[in-house]
């Protein structure tokens, strides 16, 4: 990649910050990643409290990660990450329907968020020109001549004086805490148009070790559905552990953080044989809780006169209901989009980036918002298109429970490998809308299922 600038500064060393630093390395001679937390945390860290909860990297994210950092999958596996065939080793129940088991083309690499982030951080830190500046709070932007020229940071040490870091490009990857929109308003560039869907999801997670003879498999996911706005994900990760995460809309469906209440909540979701394994599991840690108030999308691409030299990525740009596990994969999509924009040179980079990324965000955002609005408890306008889409998705999910072909296509869409429009293909629509009109399918489903080894135990 040709060099287009001298210095880029990335604000925040979460997954989005790390990926964007990877995209910038080579295009800028130096890339500095400024982070509030110090050093490399082996466990979860304060700046990423969600790191205690199960984090699934969707298939599309996995592909992009491997493309940006070749060999990273092997490193994760070497560090203990679990390898699974989602079609065979995962039990996905969505909209009340359990996806038909099948042999899929993808393999899933399952790791805790700290392991995933740690491996990615080590790889990015080893790139020429990339440097981490930890223990520093970013407190403001530096501007001049109509562009952003750097940032102001305050080291996290008693009595430390503010520092200025000058740069050709500043990228906000500070997560939901990112303050760019407020800083821009203060500089006279606001307000930034924003969409918000108040979902008020609460999370609770406990690390456990299942008994050796457990047939629970490598992941059990039960999604929320209308009438039951709660879900669970139990995901095998490194260290012979499963992360057991439960989630529900705040209020009546808020996951309890006490042992008894936690188990009672799990009992309402887990298939009976999985629940038996959970009852016999060894407890490896305390129950951690988290609250997620709303889906947020900032539309920088709609702004006029945005200063040059400033980009925003990750949760600071758009953050999704975590139930759909899209956040890290969308950060991958954004980093990939940035890489393409950098290839075309520095001219108009800010505007080109926000336009390109807005297009990449459209599908995941619409899918997440439509799914959220299928819950009567979530406030928001349900357009006829959203109602129709949700009704159709319900039919696809039902078909995916009996038809391996529909299950695989649905998996590819929620894994962000294929656009949602592929679910409207005649071959899928026929099986979703006229199940009795596809006589060959049930027989095929039985054959595929019979070919699946019984070690998953479902
Ligand atoms: C409970 C929960 C479960 C989730 N599960 C999944 C999942 O299964 N799959 C998935 O893909 N996504 C999941 N997500 C979303 C995922 O965590 C994020 O989308 C993803 O990590 C991208 O985040 P980010 O890097 O933009 O921000 P973050 O991960 O929040 O990182 C922001 C970084 O910026 C730093 N920072 C913040 N403010 C400052 C400042 N002023 N100065 C310096 N540094 C600062 C923070 O310390 C942090 O390191 C989940 C989220 C939650 C809440």
Automatic annotation (TrEMBL):
GO terms for molecular function: FAD binding. Residues 9-342 form the FAD-binding domain. Residues 436-458 are annotated as: Disordered. Residues 448-458 have a biased composition (Low complexity). It comes from the Bacteria. This is FAD-binding domain-containing protein. It comes from Actinomadura darangshiensis.
């Amino acid at each position: 990649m040709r060099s287009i600038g001298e210095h880029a500064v990335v604000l925040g060393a979460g997954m989005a910050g790390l990926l964007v630093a990877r995209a910038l390395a080579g295009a800028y001679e130096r890339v500095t990643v400024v982070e509030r937390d110090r050093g490399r945390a082996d466990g979860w860290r304060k700046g990423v409290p969600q790191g205690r909860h199960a984090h699934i990297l969707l298939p599309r994210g996995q592909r992009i990660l491997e493309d940006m950092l070749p060999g990273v999958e092997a490193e994760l596996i070497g560090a203990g990450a679990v390898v699974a065939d989602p079609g065979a080793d995962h039990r996905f129940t969505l909209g009340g329907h359990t996806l038909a088991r099948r042999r899929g083309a993808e393999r899933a690499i399952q790791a805790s968020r700290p392991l995933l982030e740690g491996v990615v951080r080590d790889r990015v830190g080893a790139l020429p020109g990339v440097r981490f500046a930890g223990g520093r709070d970013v407190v403001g932007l530096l501007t001049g001549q109509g562009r952003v020229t750097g940032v102001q940071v305050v080291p996290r040490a008693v009595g430390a004086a503010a520092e200025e870091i000058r740069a050709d490009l500043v990228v906000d990857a500070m997560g939901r805490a990112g303050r760019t929109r407020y800083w821009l308003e203060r500089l006279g560039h606001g307000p930034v148009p924003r969409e918000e869907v108040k979902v008020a999801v609460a999370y609770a997670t406990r690390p456990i070790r299942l008994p050796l003879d457990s047939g629970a498999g490598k992941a059990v996911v039960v999604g929320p559905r209308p009438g039951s706005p709660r879900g669970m994900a139990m995901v095998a990760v490194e260290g012979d552990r499963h992360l057991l995460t439960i989630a529900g809309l705040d209020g009546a469906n808020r996951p309890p953080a006490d042992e008894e209440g936690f188990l009672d909540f799990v009992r309402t979701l887990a298939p009976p044989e999985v629940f038996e394994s959970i009852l016999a599991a060894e407890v490896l840690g305390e129950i951690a809780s988290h609250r997620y108030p709303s889906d947020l999308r900032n539309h920088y691409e709609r702004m006029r006169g945005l200063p040059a030299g400033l980009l925003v990525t990750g949760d600071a740009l758009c953050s999704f209901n975590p139930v759909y596990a899209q956040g890290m994969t969308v950060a991958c999509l954004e980093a990939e989009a940035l890489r393409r924009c950098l290839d075309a040179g520095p001219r108009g980079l800010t505007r080109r980036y926000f336009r390109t990324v807005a297009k990449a965000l459209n599908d995941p955002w619409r899918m997440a918002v439509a799914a959220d609005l299928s819950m009567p408890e979530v406030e928001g306008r349900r357009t006829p298109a959203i109602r129709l889409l949700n009704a159709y998705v319900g039919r696809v999910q039902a078909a995916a429970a009996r038809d391996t072909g529909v299950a695989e296509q649905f998996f590819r869409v929620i894994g962000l490998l294929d656009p949602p429009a592929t679910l409207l293909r005649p071959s899928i629509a026929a099986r979703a809308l006229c199940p009795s009109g596809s006589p060959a399918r049930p027989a095929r489903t039985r054959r595929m299922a019979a070919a699946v080894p019984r070690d998953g135990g479902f």
